[in-house]
Amino acid sequence: MIENLIGKRYAEALSDSVKEDSLLNPVLENLQACKSAFDTQEKLVRFFSHPTISLDKKTGMAKALCDRLKVEQAVCNLMVLLSERKKILFLGKITEFFEKIVDQRLNQVRVSVRSAHKLTKANIERLRSALAGILGKAVLIDVHIDESLIGGVQLKIGDQVADATIKNRLTLLKQKLEKEEVA
Questions:
Q1: Taking a C-beta distance cutoff of 8 angstroms, is the pair 141, 123 a contact?
Q2: How many CA atoms lie within 13 A of 130 on its CB side?
Q3: At what angle do helices 73-84 and 91-105 cross, to 10 degrees?
Q4: Taking CA atoms, which of 90, 135, 178, 180 is between 20 and 30 Å from 119?
């Protein structure tokens, strides 16, 4: 619960510091790059969570990470602030909330599409166009291939899921048959 409060507060502060909407996506990409560094480099997490390492060294490491990743100044300022306030390990939640703020400010929605087979560019564009018409927002589509779905597609928009996969249909059929056997 506290991580959500911290994530939201710092994401809003970062959003407030980015005045131009055209800079939101580059800042988000930089923030995601920093988060990815923490996700892939366990040593970073251990470094920043270690109680005997001085605050100056941690702040220096945050600056070095920013330099290495060549991030925007707003993100670097945030990373230094998070280090100084011992909140840098909340970077994942901050990134999650900042992405939502960016989507809101830019009137866009992110859609995750899982498919058993690779979708053609034409199919993706038709899907994007149809969803944009329904949702009234720009649609960003992220496609994932999952052969276990057998066929069909699954759409995830926020916390809503539309599942039109053969795997899901077979699961529903199995549940229906089991229910009928009991009756």
A1: no
A2: 8
A3: 140
A4: 135
Mean pLDDT, consecutive 10-residue stretches, the chain (183 aa), reads: 95 96 96 97 95 96 96 96 96 97 97 95 96 95 94 93 92 90 70
User: What pLDDT sits at residue 1?
Assistant: 84
Quote the radius of gyration of the chain (alpha carbons, Å).
21
CB burial readout 56-65, b (16+ within 10 A) else e: eebbebbeeb
The encoded tokens of residue 85 equal 């306030």
Query: And the tokens for 109?
Result: 């929605």
Q: What is the DSSP letter of 119?
A: P
Identify the H or E element spanning 117: none
As given in the structure block, the two tokens for residue 114 are: 């899982």
CA-nearest of 141, 146, 135 to 107 is 135
Q: Is the pTM of this model over 0.90?
A: no
CATH 1.10.520 given to domain 2-104 = yes
Count the residues in the chain: 183
- Residues in Cβ contact with 122 at an 8 Å cutoff, skipping those fewer than 6 apart: none
pLDDT at residue 183, as a whole number = 62
If phi > 0 it is left, if psi is from -120 to 50 it is alpha, else beta; for residue 142 that is beta
